[in-house]
Specification:
By secondary structure, the chain is an alpha+beta fold. It has one domain. The chain is 30% helix and 39% strand. The chain contains two helices and nine strands. Strands 1, 2, 3, 4, 7, 8 and 9 form a seven-stranded antiparallel β-sheet that branches. A two-stranded antiparallel ribbon has the order 5-6. 16% of the residues are buried.
């Protein structure tokens, strides 16, 4: 596959995310890590292996009722990552849309607080 075709495939795969959230969606990248954000929700993806993407879904920060400190719930998708295939990238985008729209359990599993 040429780089031009790869770019077209990438754009087509992520277009539902952009069309759903528009200008309120932000994207940044540093090294192997990319981050999409929408209204306090954050999805951090990182190339975990040559053909595997790890993803963390981070809810907007709130105040922990016990400690009184800011805390955010961290979730993982049901399979805790995505293969570098069109089908899994489309699944990742669908998961991102669901998460940004407020879906949590059972589609995602709580894994940590930060």
């Amino acid at each position: 596959m040429s780089y031009a075709n790869l770019g077209q495939t990438f754009a087509a795969t992520f277009s539902p995310l952009v069309s759903t959230f528009g200008e309120r969606l932000s994207f940044s990248r540093e090294g192997q890590q990319a981050q999409w954000s929408f209204d306090g929700h954050v999805v951090v993806v990182e190339l975990a292996a040559t053909d595997w993407i790890a993803a963390q879904f981070i809810a907007p920060a709130g105040t922990d009722v016990v400690s009184g400190r800011p805390s955010a719930a961290v979730y993982a998708s049901d399979r805790c990552g995505y293969a570098m295939t069109n089908a899994d990238c489309e699944r990742m985008v669908a998961d991102m849309i669901a998460f940004f729209s407020g879906t949590r359990e059972p589609r995602f599993t709580f894994v940590a607080a930060r």
